[in-house]
Amino acid sequence: MNSSANKASTEKTKQQLESVFVSPMRSYTLTALDYYDQMFSAQLDAFRAYSDMAIAQARTWLDVKDADSFKKAMDSQQKTASEFMERVKGDTEKVTSISKSFAEESQQQVEETTKKAVETAKQ
Q1: How far from each other are the two terminal CA atoms of the chain, in whole angstroms?
Q2: pLDDT for res 86
């Protein structure tokens, strides 16, 4: 009888540990991995776009041979600068949104974990 009581106690402790620590940590880890994946993808996408702009602009300047092509290069430079600023604005908004979502999900998980811990402690 003592052995079955020990097994029951061990099982209860195992379930509490799973509920209070392991499951929330696993959930947070998945949320964090998703966040890092989204951030890396956003940064990689931005890097590619900025690189493409820079290379295109360099090619434009390599084609300068006279006053007319110089004027076209200057116009292209202004257009690229404007596109770049819009891109930076969009990328900043995207990163802010990803970070805000991560913070909200993390806060929700902390609240749920705290609630579970309190309920478990009452048992």
Answers
A1: 22
A2: 98
User: What is the residue whose two structure tokens read 């806060």?
Assistant: 107
Q: Going by C-beta distance under 8 Å and a sequence separation of 6 or more, which residues neighbour residue 56? A: 80
Residue 1: Cβ within 10 Å count: 5
Domain ranges of the chain: 12-122
State pLDDT tens for residues 67-84. Answer: 999 999 999 999 999 999
Q: Three-class SS string for the chain?
A: CHHHHHHHHHHHHHHHHHHHHHHHHHHHHHHHHHHHHHHHHHHHHHHHHHHHHHHHHHHHHHCCCCHHHHHHHHHHHHHHHHHHHHHHHHHHHHHHHHHHHHHHHHHHHHHHHHHHHHHHHHC
